[in-house]
Amino acid sequence: MPFCSSCGKETSSNFCPQCGAAVGASATVATPISMPGLQTNVAAALCYLCGLITGIIFLVLAPYNQNSTIRFHAFQSIFANVAWFIVWIGISVITAVMPFGIHFVIALLSGAVSLIGFLGWLFLMWKAYQGEKFILPIVGPIAEQQAGKS
Asked: Looking at CB atoms within 10 Å, which of 20, 24, 49, 103 has the fewest?
């Protein structure tokens, strides 16, 4: 006699008398797996994951570029990464022109700026995942303006 794979009760038919589950290979029916898109908060957090790359990807992908929240986070990610790149170049130029004795101080400042940037990146991803809209001081309003455009 076969046993129900759901509850373990012995049964003599194609369906379990206790739980109603299908029993046996002939009773199983293949159901297609539906693949829904990402939730808004997950897509918004992923906009920050690889900076420019993921920001551009979410601005190009069809179901996500229609959502103003995801568009805002994608634009803010792009603009923040461009600003971070400009700051990094500025620090590199300052380090190159300073006398050798000041390099230690510049290296400490560079490390502090890098740590602040890393923590800011994590903070933005966390806020986006929580569904909150954190607007950065300079690039945030520009991102809001760009996200509002269709």
From this structure: 20
